[in-house]
């Protein structure tokens, strides 16, 4: 019994010794933090999304205060108001940020889309994509397991009854976290004032696309030919819209007139409403 007490006493003594050494070292080598860092962090939205390129709001606050080369407008969710506030606090000029929003480049309902097999594994799009590029016949389409929904820290995305992610433009901050985690790159970030968008992500040729999805872009190029401003171009069998040119110059949206599948649509109207209207 006495030996047990002796061992406990020795261990307690060693523990106290180490504690005193650590306490002394902490006090001796402590580095005072610039109080402005906490002020800047308080001005940030605390989403911890990493859109700024740093590991959280505190890391960005520290960098923007201490590093003269770190811009004050890197907090995408905070938009112009936060950028201006951070600029004033740090004495830097905050350049204008173009507001952007997440956009889902797929309109084929996951619930009825043709499939190569029935997936029953982990409810994660990345996990599903590792098996034969995912269960859908269209290897470019949304898998629909909601990985983007789980990653959105602002509760701006949800899956609809067809299995497709729907973005709430009012809640979306444009951080891009959902786009980064999508294994199919179905989600893109576009200007919030975009006029039109292509609701397709497939780069297959028209004959192949039509086998799997009646709503897909078939790569005919008519929208690009009709656009008088050069805002629509064909890239690897898929129509791509330069939203900046479109928003600045387009007034009539003639690119929509000849699309046989309605893959290119007015962005202001949600895709499901458009399908019901045509």
What's the architecture of the largest domain in CATH terms? 2-Layer Sandwich
**Low-confidence spans: pLDDT under 50, at least 5 residues?**
269-278
Count of helical segments? 11
Count the E strands: 8
The run of helices and strands is HHHHEHHEEHEEHHEEHEH
Per CATH, the class of the largest domain reads Alpha Beta
The helix-and-strand class reads: alpha+beta
CATH topology of the largest domain: Alpha-Beta Plaits
Query: How is the main sheet built?
Result: 2 strands, antiparallel
The total domain count is 3
What portion of residues is helical? 25-40%
The radius of gyration over CA amounts to: 26 Å
Strand order of the biggest β-sheet: 1-4
Return the average pLDDT rounded to an integer. 87
Strand content: 5-15%
Quick one: overall form? flat
Instruction: Tell me the distance between the termini.
Output: 88 Å
Account of the protein in words:
The protein has 278 residues and is of the alpha+beta class. It folds into three domains: 35-90, 3-methyladenine DNA Glycosylase II, Chain A, domain 3 (Orthogonal Bundle), CATH 1.10.15.40; 99-187, Alpha-Beta Plaits; 193-278, Alpha-Beta Plaits (2-Layer Sandwich), CATH 3.30.70.20. Helix content is 36%, strand content 11%. It is built from eleven helices and eight strands. The protein has helices spanning 2-28, 35-43, 57-66, 79-90, 125-129, 147-151, 177-181, 206-212, 222-226, 243-249, 271-277; strands at 100-104, 157-159, 165-167, 187-191, 196-198, 232-235, 238-241, 264-266. The strands form four sheets. A two-stranded antiparallel ribbon has the order 1-4. A hairpin with a 5-residue loop joins strand 2 and strand 3 (165-167). Helix 2 (35-43) runs antiparallel to helix 4 (79-90). Mean pLDDT is 87; it is low at 269-278.
